Amino acid sequence: MLKYIYANIGGAAGSVVAARLSEIPSWRVLLIEAGPDEPAGAEIPSNFGVYLGSSLDWKYRTINESYACLAQNGSCSWPRGRNLGGTTVHHGMAYHRGNAKDYENWVAMGNEGWSWAEVLPYFIKSEDNREINRVGRQYHGTGGPMVIERFPYQPPFADAILKAAEETGYGRTEDMVGANIRGFTVAQTMSVNGVRQSTASAFLRPIRNRGNLDIVLNATATRILINNQKRVTGIEYLLNNRTRRARVTREVIVSGGAVNSPQLLLLSGIGPKEQLRSLGIRVVLDLPGVGKNLHNHVSYSLDFTLANQQNALGFNLDDVTQYISNQTGPLSSSGLAQVTGILSSRYTTSDYPDLQMFFSGFQESCFDTGDVDLRSYGNNRTVRFTAVNLHPKSRGALSLANKNPLEHPIIWSNDLADPADVDVLVDGMHVIINMANSTTMKSQGLTLATQPIDRCKEYEFLSDSYFRCAVHIDTRTENHQTGSCKMGPSSDPLAVVDPYLRVHGIQGLRIADASIMPMVVSGNPQAAVTMVGERAADFIKRTYSQCSYL
Question: Which terminus has fewer CB within 10 Å in the chain: N or C?
Answer without folding.
Answer: N
